[in-house]
Amino acid sequence: xxxxxxxxxxxxxxxxxxxxxxxxxxxxxxxxxxxxxxxxxxxxxxxxxxxxxxxxxxxxxxxxxxxxxxxxxxxxxxxxxxxxxxxxxxxxxxxxxxxxxxxxxxxxxxxxxxxxxxxxxxxxxxxxxxxxxxxxxxxxxxxxxxxxxxxxxxxxxxxxxxxxxxxxxxxxxxxxxxxxxxxxxxxxxxxxxxxxxxxxxxxxxxxxxxxxxxxxxxxxxxxxxxxxxxxxxxxxxxxxxxxxxxxxxxxxxxxxxxxxxxxxxxxxxxxxxxxxxxxxxxxxxxxxxxxxxxxxxxxxxxxxxxxxxxxxxxxxxxxxxxxxxxxxxxxxxxxxxxxxxxxxxxxxxxxxxxxxxxxxxxxxxxxxxxxxxxxxxxxxxxxxxxxxxxxxxxxxxxxxxxxxxxxxxxxxxxxxxxxxxxxxxxxxxxxxxxxxxxxxxxxxxxxxxxxxxxxxxxxxxxxxxxxxxxxxxxxxxxxxxxxxxxxxxxxxxxxxxxxxxxxxxxxxxxxxxxxxxxxxxxxxxxxxxxxxxxxxxxxxxxxxxxxxxxxxxxxxxxxxxxxxxxx
Length: 567
What we know:
The protein is an alpha+beta fold. The chain is built from 16 helices and 24 strands.
């Protein structure tokens, strides 16, 4: 029997501290819940920080306990030692990991960087070759962090070796912002250079010229236009007439408003985990029209000006051949969540330029993705919307303008994003409207926490009531954050049920327990969600499937348009 959960307009249920601790056993955060913020977050004598977290404001994510539990933290812990001026400590940590696992290429990469900083270039050279022998792409050493590897990469020996490797495209290409008549292609090159995206389609071939710049960390984006709707094309990257990438195929979107069949994928919880990076190949095999990255895409957890550590956290994922194969062919769309924006359970406050690192972090995020937009000029962020046929997808930013959830007047979206969302819903002519949030909508998805929409129940009610009062049919909720994949049904007095599909276990090791009230839930293996739309039917429907890293279908839920209205 399927059990439904109701959305409530009240604070989340108080839970005993022991219960919370048991639920979060193994998690490096969550054992000490409360209201925390750094000194500069307390304005005008207020006892409430305008930005802060539901967890203590510290580097606990990088303690040895966290590194022992989660692969994604090992290299980060070691890299922080280097950045903090202690490369010898990084070498010692890496050596200890290699003693347990001699096949760990990431620890050899850290040794390369550390020895470069120590000036021991022979040891750095040997560590680099050890990493390469273990299968690490040479592009990792071209990518950087360049300022940390410069003592090695500036040597003639390295330059000669790099010339033989002939690595021009370091990251990407990444496909995104695909419309009926256009697409954008993102790349990161080894150096500042002009490049071409050479596109082939039915009875046509042409090149679009772009340029990477040092100011944008050697990234560049080209807009490929004048394409035909719902048509297959392929592309490759060329420099000076030479092919420097694989060739990838993609299909443009159907005309706006046209019914049909297609699938999109979504997920979050993608901490870098060597053993689980193969999930990107599983996703690539689905032939999706889009993949939605719903936050915790790389895990940074350093609330500060973006620098070498932030770059490192992106580069190790972007260098993975599995990831590059997926984003080269599957249009990618991304928002961020707490672990990408700052750290866990964070709210960044109502201001555009405070804290000082907020806007630079948004810009850093934008530099590493290829979205249609990043908020607005007056309120930059990670939110945007796009349309595929007769389905419109609203990608929401739940962190950049979130205010303190422990005060009475609070907002997850901020006034500009909320107005944009409500206006978009009121004017959308799409059959299905998908509201993609980085955190769950249903109360029961994370009991005892104010980090989800349960902590912003009034604003959630405002959105739900607006949908009902304006007869906006066909709304489905999508979210992530919880390290499992599942479905919920939020019952309403109006009879309009809000179905929510959640997936947040793309590559993470850590899992969250299954909570009571879900229609179904799965946390036994890495997974992602697939939404298959069929709007040609008399009663259009979307079918949700949980797919595992091994491409097994675990659960299925069919949602029909006729349900998604006031009954």
